[in-house]
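Run GntR family transcriptional regulator through structure prediction, thanks.
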Amino acid sequence: MVYKSIADKLCIRLNSSAYNIGAPLPAEMKLAEEFGVSRMTIRRAINLLVASGMVVRRHGSGTYVARKDVYHETSSLTGMVEGVQRQGKNVVSKVLDFEVIPAPPSIACQLRLRADERLYFSRRVRYVDGKPLLVEDSYMPVKLFRNLSIAHLEGSKLNYIEKECNIIIGGNNEGLIPVLADKQIAALMEVPEKTPLLRITSLFYSVDGEYLNYSVMYRNANVYQVEYCLKRIYA
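Sure, done. The structure for GntR family transcriptional regulator is below.
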């Protein structure tokens, strides 16, 4: 339905850095002109946002942003847990699978390991305020993390790597591809099949040049947005 599509677009807009909590929404007439629909359609779209708690109507004043979904603005390397917890949100990680496996050739290539070298494989779902935010498949070399456990994966991997293993993280290479949720991922994310998701590959490396972790993540872009603030470096 048109009004639901508009509500989704407004949700993404309100979660961006352009809107702070307490900021007013544009007038219904202005939004109707922007989207080329009637004021009634805009009102139904806003009603959905009111019902979700994202915006609130104030009689005689207007409509205002009441809360934001998960939003992460970054100019430095920050873990998802760190970024989300700073917003006062509750993060829970549920580990669905954890085992030691021989490195598949494609993963060994990413981590610069020999084929069949031992890896920890884990699959976990990250929940924010009770909503599934992402599904993550992760691969970590056993030789670097001898005592990795489910308890560590239920917390922050970055904290484990830096604080317990005393490894200084040098950076992270990420790749983003839009995909449609298959049956398995859709069930874990609690969304319909073929829902648009972001498939993100992540490769962490240390300051010494060792590759620490390779992850494949699926994120629901409707409830999680990231803005990267990148600076140009001149030689």
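Confidence is low (pLDDT under 50) at residues 70-77.
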